[in-house]
């Protein structure tokens, strides 16, 4: 079925100037309507065009203030969401330790939050991330025992990671604007794969935080957290391969390089120098970062671990036989590479090794 927009489109009729005909199928018309972005209300469009394009100092200052306020709002919301997730991670970490010690808690997420010392059920005010720690001055309201600094540190770290990994999706990102011509043109929705990659990185970062604290306390990297990490990192690599951003062999080479090297050290030292949990941890991280990123991760973690051990020896707080978990250094280097993906190439450039 064809539609006629003007009589000049009919053969035999006189052709008039400034006329056009649209011989468009109904399906094409519907497709064009779906592709047309939704427009904001006319009042907002007029308001935005009035002050955005105005050359006066008032218009420029007003628009700059709007940008700053909106970016601060999005960043604050992401930070608050990250601290809430960090509070949840603290619960998982605490109950993981209880399970390992007593085996009396069958479920990791079962029951309400309690003080680990007196067992008192925490009130809603005591569950507010960061704020409750400051209001209580780092002590329990019931038994006045000092609260471990692990809780605010995990919440703060998770909040900062949420801002670092997810804020580019809302603030200053590329792509098509959510509402073209609105007061906040810098706010944009990226393509689906960019959003998926950022969310997968944040999920992986949350799992790595749990592994960091658990390994630091118990010298164990539980398999029930390593398997979800492997699923997330493999999904991350698969999305990049589907979008032709990554070759099929690169994640495999990264996993083989990292896992193979630590497995060699594990066999040579017979488990005294490197634990097998570190081997299992570096395999999914190798999928995420590839061979170059994995080599950089190993380099940074060995440097940091060596510096930490040397500092303990210099302070006479450890001996050559003191066991130090290596997983936290691997995890710290991995979180750093998530924030600085160009760091491996920059290190090679500094060392004078061109790619």
UniProtKB/TrEMBL annotation:
<feature type="transmembrane region" description="Helical">
    <location>
        <begin position="153"/>
        <end position="175"/>
    </location>
</feature>
<protein>
    <recommendedName>
        <fullName>Prepilin leader peptidase/N-methyltransferase</fullName>
        <ecNumber>2.1.1.-</ecNumber>
        <ecNumber>3.4.23.43</ecNumber>
    </recommendedName>
</protein>
<dbReference type="Pfam" id="PF01478">
    <property type="entry name" value="Peptidase_A24"/>
</dbReference>
<dbReference type="InterPro" id="IPR010627">
    <property type="entry name" value="Prepilin_pept_A24_N"/>
</dbReference>
<feature type="domain" description="Prepilin peptidase A24 N-terminal">
    <location>
        <begin position="81"/>
        <end position="166"/>
    </location>
</feature>
<keyword id="KW-0489">Methyltransferase</keyword>
<comment type="function">
    <text>Plays an essential role in type IV pili and type II pseudopili formation by proteolytically removing the leader sequence from substrate proteins and subsequently monomethylating the alpha-amino group of the newly exposed N-terminal phenylalanine.</text>
</comment>
<dbReference type="GO" id="GO:0032259">
    <property type="term" value="P:methylation"/>
</dbReference>
<dbReference type="InterPro" id="IPR014032">
    <property type="entry name" value="Peptidase_A24A_bac"/>
</dbReference>
<keyword id="KW-1133">Transmembrane helix</keyword>
<feature type="domain" description="Prepilin type IV endopeptidase peptidase">
    <location>
        <begin position="203"/>
        <end position="309"/>
    </location>
</feature>
<dbReference type="GO" id="GO:0005886">
    <property type="term" value="C:plasma membrane"/>
</dbReference>
<keyword id="KW-0812">Transmembrane</keyword>
<feature type="transmembrane region" description="Helical">
    <location>
        <begin position="289"/>
        <end position="311"/>
    </location>
</feature>
<keyword id="KW-0645">Protease</keyword>
<keyword id="KW-0511">Multifunctional enzyme</keyword>
<dbReference type="GO" id="GO:0006465">
    <property type="term" value="P:signal peptide processing"/>
</dbReference>
<keyword id="KW-0997">Cell inner membrane</keyword>
<keyword id="KW-1003">Cell membrane</keyword>
<feature type="transmembrane region" description="Helical">
    <location>
        <begin position="323"/>
        <end position="340"/>
    </location>
</feature>
<feature type="transmembrane region" description="Helical">
    <location>
        <begin position="72"/>
        <end position="94"/>
    </location>
</feature>
<feature type="transmembrane region" description="Helical">
    <location>
        <begin position="248"/>
        <end position="268"/>
    </location>
</feature>
<keyword id="KW-0472">Membrane</keyword>
<dbReference type="GO" id="GO:0004190">
    <property type="term" value="F:aspartic-type endopeptidase activity"/>
</dbReference>
<keyword id="KW-0378">Hydrolase</keyword>
<dbReference type="InterPro" id="IPR000045">
    <property type="entry name" value="Prepilin_IV_endopep_pep"/>
</dbReference>
<feature type="transmembrane region" description="Helical">
    <location>
        <begin position="195"/>
        <end position="213"/>
    </location>
</feature>
<dbReference type="GO" id="GO:0008168">
    <property type="term" value="F:methyltransferase activity"/>
</dbReference>
<comment type="similarity">
    <text>Belongs to the peptidase A24 family.</text>
</comment>
<dbReference type="InterPro" id="IPR050882">
    <property type="entry name" value="Prepilin_peptidase/N-MTase"/>
</dbReference>
<keyword id="KW-0808">Transferase</keyword>
<dbReference type="Pfam" id="PF06750">
    <property type="entry name" value="A24_N_bact"/>
</dbReference>
């Amino acid at each position: 079925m064809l539609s006629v927009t003007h009589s000049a489109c009919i053969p035999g009729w006189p052709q008039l100037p400034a006329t056009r005909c649209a011989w468009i199928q109904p399906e094409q018309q519907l497709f064009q309507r779906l592709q047309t972005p939704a427009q904001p209300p006319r009042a907002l469009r007029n308001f935005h065009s009035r002050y955005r394009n105005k050359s006066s100092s008032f218009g420029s200052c007003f628009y700059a203030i709007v940008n700053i306020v909106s970016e601060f709002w999005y960043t604050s919301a992401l930070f608050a969401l990250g601290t809430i997730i960090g509070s949840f991670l603290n619960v998982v970490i605490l109950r993981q330790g209880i399970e390992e010690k007593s085996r009396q808690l069958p479920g990791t997420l079962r029951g309400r939050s309690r003080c680990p010392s007196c067992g008192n059920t925490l009130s809603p005010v005591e569950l507010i991330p960061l704020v409750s720690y400051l209001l209580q001055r780092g002590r329990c309201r019931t038994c006045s025992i000092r609260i471990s600094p692990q809780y605010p540190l995990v919440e703060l770290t998770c909040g900062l990671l949420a801002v670092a990994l997810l804020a580019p999706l809302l603030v200053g990102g590329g792509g098509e604007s959510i509402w073209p011509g609105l007061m906040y043109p810098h706010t944009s929705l990226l393509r689906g794969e960019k959003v998926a990659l950022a969310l997968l990185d944040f999920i992986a970062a949350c799992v790595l935080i749990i592994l960091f604290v658990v390994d630091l306390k118990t010298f164990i990297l539980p398999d029930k957290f390593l398997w979800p990490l492997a699923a997330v990192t493999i999904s991350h690599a698969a999305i990049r391969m589907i979008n032709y951003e990554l070759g099929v062999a690169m994640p495999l080479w990264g996993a083989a390089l990292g896992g193979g090297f630590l497995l060699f050290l594990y066999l040579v030292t017979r488990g005294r120098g490197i634990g097998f949990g570190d081997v299992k941890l570096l395999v999914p991280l190798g999928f995420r970062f590839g061979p170059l990123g994995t080599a950089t991760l190993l380099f940074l973690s060995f440097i940091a671990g060596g510096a930490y051990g040397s500092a303990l020896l210099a302070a006479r707080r450890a001996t050559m036989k003191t066991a130090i978990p290596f997983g936290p250094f691997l995890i710290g280097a991995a979180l750093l590479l998530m924030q600085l993906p160009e760091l491996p190439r920059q290190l090679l450039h500094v060392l004078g090794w061109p790619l």
